[in-house]
Amino acid sequence: MRQQMVLGDFIFGLSRGFAYATLTHSSYGGWSNLEIIASKPQSRQSGQALEKLTFGGTAMYAVGMQRLDELRALQNARAPLPLVDGIGRNWGLWRINSVVENQSHVIDDGTAMVMSWSLELEEFVNA
Predict the structure, then answer these.
(1) Collapsing DSSP states into helix, strand and coil, what is residue 14?
(2) pTM exceeding 0.85
C-alpha cells in the first residue's frame, strides 16, 4: 500500500481517501537582533527554534469527516507521535498543534461533501 506519510498510526495517502496536497516545512536558524541606538542592530544567536510542518488538503464525503475525527483523537491524546514519510525516512517525534477543517456543500443529514483541512505539527524535543 502506497502512502505519503504516516503520523503515529494515521496514514496519509490516496489509498485511505485522505491525501495531502501541500506541505510546508518551516525551520528557523535562531538568530535575533539586538537593537543599537547609534548603529545597525547586532546579530545574536539565541538558539534554534523548533521546526514546523503544515499539511493541507481536500477530503470528500463522510470518509474525510472520519479521518479528521481520527486526527483530532490523536491530538487529544496529547502525546508526541513518530512521523515517517513514504520513502521510509524517519522525521522523528512531532506534536499536533492544530487541526483546522472547513466544510462545504453540506447535505441535509449534516455530511459535508467537501472539506478543506490543514494540520500543523511542531517538532517534539525533550532533551
Answers:
(1) helix
(2) no
